[in-house]
Amino acid sequence: VQLQAFGGGLVQPGGSLRLSCAASGIIFDDYAIGWIRQAPGKEREFVAGISRSGDTTYYGDSAKGRFTISRDNAKNTVYPQMHSLNPEDTADYYCAASITPGRRSELYGYWGQGTQVTVSS
């Protein structure tokens, strides 16, 4: 199983960023995909997730109203779109796969390499 997150970078406060997660080595639409982030010195935090078909989405409290997540099963890719970013969103963002969808990071057993997001002026 290989998962790779893309799209991180430096963005100004109030800005937007779209990440993507590409998967291989799995039957993509057998898995829910989640995004979990970890900031320096902080615990992992669930950000967003999407069910296998894409008809159900899940958001962590910090992401509600600002982030949206979608998936394209034909391209084996998931896209979290992040808006109204603030410095507290600075973290390494990881995508992960799970047979069981949900909002708990522990559900996601397959993790990929992360991408760093820095929100700063």
Provide an overview of this structure.
This protein is mostly beta strands. It is built from no helices and 12 strands. It has strands at residues 2-6, 9-11, 17-18, 20-24, 32-38, 45-50, 57-59, 67-72, 77-82, 91-98, 110-111, 115-119. The strands form 2 sheets. Strands 2, 5, 6, 7, 10, 11 and 12 form a 7-stranded mixed sheet that branches. Strand 5 (32-38) and strand 6 (45-50) form a beta hairpin.
What would the principal axes of the Cα set say about the shape? globular
Helices and strands, in N-to-C order? EEEEEEEEEEEE
List the total number of helices.
0
What is the number of beta strands? 12
CA(first)-CA(last) distance: 37 Å
- Kindly provide the radius of gyration, computed on alpha-carbon positions and rounded to a whole number of angstroms: 13 Å
Mean pLDDT comes to 95
Q: What percentage of amino acids are in beta strands?
A: over 45%
- Proportion of helical residues: under 10%
Question: pLDDT under 50 segments (min length 5)?
Answer: none
Structural class, from secondary structure content? Answer: mainly beta
